[in-house]
Design a protein that fits this description.
Blueprint lengths: L1 E8 L5 H7 L3 H12 L4 E8 L3 E8 L5 H11 L3 H7 L1 E4 L1 H11 L11 H15 L5 H20 L9 H13 L6 E5 L3 H12 L4 E6 L2 H11 L2 E4 L3 H4 L5 E4 L10 H10 L5 E5 L16 E5 L4 H5 L3 H27 L3 H27 L4 H30 L2 H10 L6
Parallel strand pairs: 5-6, 5-8, 6-7, 8-9, 9-10
Antiparallel strand pairs: 1-3, 1-4, 2-3
Helix pairs in contact: 5-7, 5-14, 6-7, 7-14, 8-9, 15-16, 16-17
Length: 418
C-alpha cells in the first residue's frame, strides 16, 4: 500500500502546461474512473484548479510510472513536459502536501480560503464515483479537519487576500478611483463572486455579469444589484467596460482579439483593464498586443499578491507546526493498518484453540467428571497452548542470539527479567 501525490502548480509549470493538464468539471469523473481502472491504482482523487492539477492516489506498488503514463495519455503532454513540470510526494510527504494545500500554505496567495472548498468538491466527485476507499476517505477527512484547525488557531487566513482581491487591487492602481468605472464580469462562479464583492467594497456602482447560463448570471446580479447578460451579448456591450474580469470553465477563449479591437475603437482608445483568471484562458493571449489594453493573467498577479503576504508569513510558521503534528498522527493510524492482518490471524488462531478446549471440557462435564477437575484442566490446557508457540520462538531466538525478538516479546507481554 503506497500513497502518492502527483501534480503541477503555478510554481512548477507555465500557464500553457497547466491549461493542457487541467480537467473541466464535465470530464473529471470520467478521468478518475479511467485512472482507477488501471491495475496499480486502487483509489484516486483529482484536484484541478486554475493554479494546479494534482492526483492523490493509493497504489499497490511504489513509484509514479503508472501515473506518468496516464497523465501523458490523457492530457497529451509529452514525457519531457511532465518531467519538467511535476512534483511527486510519496506516503507521509503526500499527506503533508494535502494538509498544506487545504490550509492555503501552498497557494499563490498564502492562506487563501478558496482551495479548501475546491478540495472538498474534488473529493466529493471522486467519492461519488466510487474511486475512494478507506485510505483516501480517512486522509481527506483528516485534511479538512487540519485545515479548519489551522484557520481557527492561527491568523494565516486573516486580512483576506486572494486572486480576486489582487485583481481588484491592480485595477485600483491603474484607475485610482473605481467608483465611476463600468465592470464586465465574465462567469458567475465563486471567483467572480469574490471579485464582485471586492469591487463593491471599493465603490464600484455599475457591474455587468455575463455567463453561459443566464439564470446563474441573474442570480449573482440580484445579489450584487447589477445587470445580467448572456455570453452572446458580450461583443455588443464590451465597449462599455473599463474593467473586464473573466473566470469561466470554458475550454475555448470567450474573448478574441477581434472583439476587443472593435471595442477599443468604439471607446476611442480609452484604456481597458482586463484580467483573465481562468485556466484554460478565457481571453486570447494576442489581446495583450493591442494598444490601450492592459491584459493580465493569473501568473501576472504574482507580484501584486506578494505585497499582501507579510501579515501571514509568521502565522504560516505556526500552521506548519500544526501540520507536522497532524501528519505524525495520520501516519500512526496508517501504519497501524499493516498489523491488522496479523492481529486478525492471531485472534483467529486463539479462538480456534479456545473452541477446541471448550468442546473437550463440555464433553468431560457431560461424562460426569468433577467440574473442578474440568476447569483446572481447561485452564492448564489453554495456558499451555497459548504459550507454546511464543515459548518455542523465544527459545530459538535465545539460541541464535536474536535480541531484537526477545526485546519484542518483552514489550508485547510486558515482561521484566527475573
Amino acid at each position: 500500500m503506497h500513497l502518492l501525490a502527483f501534480g503541477l502548480n503555478h510554481n512548477s509549470a507555465s500557464i500553457d502546461v497547466r491549461e493542457r493538464a487541467a480537467f473541466t468539471a464535465e470530464r473529471l469523473e470520467n478521468a478518475i474512473l479511467n485512472l482507477t481502472a488501471r491495475k496499480d491504482v486502487s483509489e484516486a482523487t483529482i484536484l484541478s484548479t486554475c493554479n494546479r492539477t494534482e492526483i492523490y492516489c493509493r497504489q499497490q506498488s511504489a513509484g509514479s510510472d503508472s501515473i506518468h503514463s496516464w497523465i501523458s495519455e490523457y492530457s497529451g503532454l509529452s514525457p519531457k513536459e511532465i518531467n519538467d513540470s511535476v512534483y511527486l510526494f510519496p506516503n507521509d510527504q503526500a499527506v503533508k502536501h494535502a494538509f498544506r494545500v487545504a490550509s492555503g500554505l501552498d497557494s499563490m496567495v498564502l492562506g487563501e480560503p478558496q482551495i479548501l472548498g475546491q478540495m472538498k468538491d474534488a473529493f466529493a466527485v471522486a467519492h461519488r464515483a466510487g474511486a475512494t476507499g478507506k485510505i483516501l476517505n480517512r486522509m481527506f477527512q483528516h485534511t479538512f479537519s487540519v485545515a479548519k484547525q489551522v484557520r481557527t488557531d492561527t491568523s494565516v487566513g486573516t486580512n483576506a487576500v486572494s486572486v480576486a482581491y489582487a485583481a481588484v487591487d491592480l485595477a485600483k492602481r491603474l484607475f485610482n478611483d473605481l467608483s465611476s468605472k463600468v465592470v464586465l464580469l465574465i462567469g458567475a462562479g465563486e471567483t467572480i463572486e469574490l471579485v464582485a464583492r471586492h469591487l463593491l467594497q471599493n465603490g464600484v456602482k455599475q457591474i455587468i455579469v455575463a455567463n453561459r447560463s443566464i439564470e446563474r448570471a441573474e442570480n449573482l446580479a440580484r445579489e450584487i444589484r447589477s445587470e445580467a447578460i448572456s455570453l452572446g451579448e458580450i461583443p455588443a456591450r464590451l465597449y462599455e467596460a473599463d474593467i473586464v474580469v473573466a473566470s469561466t470553465a470554458s475550454t475555448l477563449p470567450i474573448l478574441g482579439k477581434g472583439a476587443v479591437e472593435s471595442a477599443i475603437k468604439k471607446r476611442k482608445h480609452r484604456p481597458m483593464f482586463m484580467v483573465d483568471l481562468a485556466v484554460p484562458r478565457d481571453i486570447e493571449s494576442e489581446v495583450s498586443s493591442l494598444r490601450d489594453v492592459y491584459l493580465y493573467t493569473v501568473d501576472d498577479l504574482a507580484d501584486v499578491i506578494d505585497q499582501n503576504m507579510n501579515a501571514r508569513k509568521e502565522a504560516a510558521i505556526e500552521a506548519e507546526k500544526i501540520i507536522d503534528l497532524q501528519v505524525v498522527r495520520f501516519m500512526r493510524w496508517l501504519n497501524s493498518l499493516n498489523s491488522v492482518p496479523t492481529v486478525r490471524s492471531f485472534r483467529r488462531e486463539i479462538e480456534e484453540i479456545r473452541k477446541r478446549e471448550l468442546d473437550r471440557a463440555i464433553k468431560r462435564l457431560q461424562s460426569g467428571t468433577n467440574p473442578e477437575d474440568v476447569l483446572e484442566r481447561l485452564s492448564r490446557n489453554l495456558t499451555g497452548k497459548f504459550s507454546h508457540l511464543p515459548s518455542k520462538a523465544l527459545r530459538k531466538a535465545d539460541e541464535s542470539g536474536n535480541a531484537q525478538l526477545i526485546g519484542a516479546m518483552k514489550t508485547l507481554f510486558n515482561l521484566e527479567n527475573e
